Amino acid sequence: MPRPHMLLVEDDPAIAELLQWHFAREDFDIAQTADGEEALLLAREKTPDIVLLDWMLETLSGLEVCRRLRRQPETANVPIIMLTARGEEEDRVRGLDTGADDYVTKPFSPRELVSRVNAVLRRVRPALAGEMLTYADVEMDLGSHKVKRAGETVPLGPTEFRLLKHFLEHPGWVFSRERLLDAVWGHDADIEARTVDVHIRRLRKAINTGDRADIIRTVRSAGYALDSGS
Questions:
Q1: How many other CB atoms are found less than 10 A from the CB of residue 160?
Q2: What pLDDT score was predicted for residue 20?
Q3: What domains lie within the chain, and their CATH numbers?
Q4: How many C-beta atoms surround the C-beta of residue 103 within 10 A?
Q5: How far apart are CA 201 and CA 157, in angstroms?
Q6: Which of 140, 110, 151 is nearest to 10 (CA)?
Q7: 3-class SS string, the chain
Q8: 132-135/138-141 β-pairing
C-alpha cells in the first residue's frame, strides 16, 4: 500500500514540526514548506494526496495557493484542508468557496486533525486511508478486522492477521524470519525465529483452503513472500 503523500504548507516552525511528527507516526510521506510559491512547485514535482495549507503565509497567501492548485489539472481534485487563526464564519465560507475541502481553526488538536485528514482520504481515496488492503483474490478490511479470499470469509488469529497485513502491505517482497519477527512481533519480542514458521503454516492453512493456490512463497535460505505466481 502506498504511503499517502502530504504537502504541508505552514510558516510557524513549531506547528510545522508538531504536525510533521504526528503525521509521520501515521506513516505519511511529508513535503513541508513555509512558502506559498515553493508549495506550488512542490505540488508540480510530486502530486500530493492531500494538502494542509496555512491561510496566513508571508509571500503568497494560502487562499491564492488554494486557487492556483485548483486551476492546475494535476491538483484540481486534491483534497485541501485550510489551517488558520481566522474563526469567523465569513472567513470559513471564503476559504471553502476558494476550493478548500475542510477548515481547521488554530489552536487545534493534532489528533483531531489526523482524524479529519484520514476522514477526507477515506472519502476520496479509500486505499490511501488504509481501510482496505487487497492482493490477488485476498481482501483485508482493517476497519472491521475481516479477511476474505475469493469472497469467502477467512477466520484468522491475531498474529496471523498481523502477519498477512504485513505481507499485503509489501506484496512480492521477501522477508527473512528475523525481519518478520521485528515487523509483526516487535523488536523487543523474546521469540525464536522458528516461531515464524509455525504462524506461516497456520496462515497458509487458513487462506489456502480447498483448491486455492498457495500465495505465500517460501524462498529457500531467504524467507517468505506474498506471491500469487501470476
A1: 22
A2: 93
A3: 5-124 (3.40.50.2300), 132-226 (1.10.10.10)
A4: 20
A5: 12
A6: 110
A7: CCCCEEEEECCCHHHHHHHHHHHHHCCCEEEEECCHHHHHHHHHHCCCCEEEEECCCCCCCHHHHHHHHHHCCCCCCCCEEEEECCCCHHHHHHHHHHCCCEEEECCCCHHHHHHHHHHHHHHHCCCCCCCEEEECCEEEECCCCEEEECCEECCCCHHHHHHHHHHHHCCCCCECHHHHHHHHHCCCCCCCCHHHHHHHHHHHHHHCCCCCCCCEEEECCCEEEECCCC
A8: antiparallel
Q: Is the pTM of this model over 0.70?
A: no
Give residue for cell 512547485.
Answer: 41
In the structure grid, which three cell numbers stand for residue 98, read together? 476558494
Q: What is the pLDDT of residues 74-123, one digit of tens each?
A: 888 888 888 887 655 566 666 566 777 777 877 888 888 888 888 777 76
